[in-house]
Each structure stands twice: as C-alpha cells, then as structure tokens.
Design a protein that fits this description.
Elements: H1 14-22, H2 31-44, H3 49-62, H4 68-71, H5 76-84, H6 92-112, H7 115-119, E1 128-129, H8 143-154, H9 162-171, E2 175-176, H10 183-193
Parallel strand pairs: 1-2
Helix pairs in contact: 2-3, 2-6, 2-9, 8-9
C-alpha cells in the first residue's frame, strides 16, 4: 500500500486503500460475491461507502457470509436477530429487502444457470472501460444501469435504483471507472485481456 501510488481518490485509511487496490472494479464472476456486492450497495443507499466498508464484516456475520440460499430462508426471528446485532445497519426495510432479493436471486440462478450469466448480459459480457480523468466525469447512472435497474425491479428486487445499480457495476467490474492516471486502470484492462 504505497502512499506514493496514484489512486482514484485520496485516502490514508488502510481499509479504503485495500478496497480500491484489490476489489473495486475487478470483474467478478462469483455468484456469492455478486450477491454480497448487490446487497452492500443496497445498504449504502443514503449512507457513505466508508460506513459500509467499516460494517462489512459485521454484515457478513449477520447475513451468513451473504450466502443467498441461506438468506432466502430467513424468518422473522432472523430479522429480529439482525436488528439487535451490534454494529449492523439497523434499517428494517433494507434487511427485509436483502431477504427478498436473495429469493429473487435464486430464481435468476435457476433460470440462467447463474446470476453471473444474467447480470453480465447488461454489458454484453465484457467490462466497459471508461477513460475518465477526474471523479467529476463519472456518472451516477448510465443507460446500462437503468436497464439493469428496470429488469431487477421487474423481477421483484428492492433497493436497485439506477444509481445503486451503477455503484454495483463499478464495484463488480462491469465497468472500469478507475481514472486513467490511477495505477489500477491499466491493470484491470490487462487482466481482462488475459481472461480465457
């Protein structure tokens, strides 16, 4: 974690640096990780991403490591357990949406073979590599995120507006929004080229 390295955003917080350097924008094809990011981005609504990162491990514990098959079976007792857990974002609507989203997630897996196969169709199976030079150029939503939001809502998902969907696309590497002067921008482009 060399502080002299050029990054998209300026921070000295190790947790934030690790997230930027190791996760943000890396193309994800693991269904459980895609589910985790979708739920975390939903929890972010109205909050900062920093709060989500700080509470991520606590949320993982509360939601069985974001295993959609387990979360889909949660009962009212599980909602009460999560609401009373220490360090969890106590928003009942978001907790309930995580459960119903897990149920819809499983239906998509059954229909398409994987959530991965379904979600990557919105970018034609390839990362969209943007070439932004400043954070102010990064959009809050795009045509792809609007289409994703519309389809997820049609399928019964909650907390999946176009802005949340775009944040998910950034996190899961459906788009590469690392600034062109950031050391990760080219690394992600090259990694994608080397995929089988």
């Amino acid at each position: 974690m060399d502080a002299k390295v050029q990054r998209c955003w300026s921070t000295e917080k190790p947790l934030y640096i690790r997230y930027h350097d190791e996760e943000w924008g890396v193309p994800l094809h693991d269904d459980n990780k895609l589910f985790e990011f979708l739920i975390l981005d939903g929890f972010q609504a109205g909050l900062s991403w920093w709060i989500i990162l700080e509470k991520r491990n606590t949320l993982r514990e509360a939601f069985d490591n974001f295993d959609p098959a387990k979360v889909a079976k949660y009962s009212h007792d599980d909602v009460d357990r999560i609401m009373s857990a220490s360090g969890v974002i106590k928003n009942k609507a978001k907790i309930l949406s995580a459960i119903s989203n897990a149920q819809q997630f499983l239906k998509i897996q059954a229909e398409f073979g994987s959530f991965d196969a379904f979600i990557w169709k919105f970018v034609n199976g390839k990362t969209i590599n943007n070439n932004f030079t400043s954070l102010s150029q990064i959009p809050a939503e795009t045509e792809e995120s609007k289409a994703m939001s519309t389809e997820l809502k049609r399928r019964g998902f909650k907390f999946v507006g176009p802005t949340i969907c775009y944040a998910f696309m950034q996190a899961a590497g459906l788009v590469n929004d690392h600034l062109i002067n950031c050391f990760r921008h080219q690394q992600i482009r090259e990694a994608e080229c080397n995929l089988p």
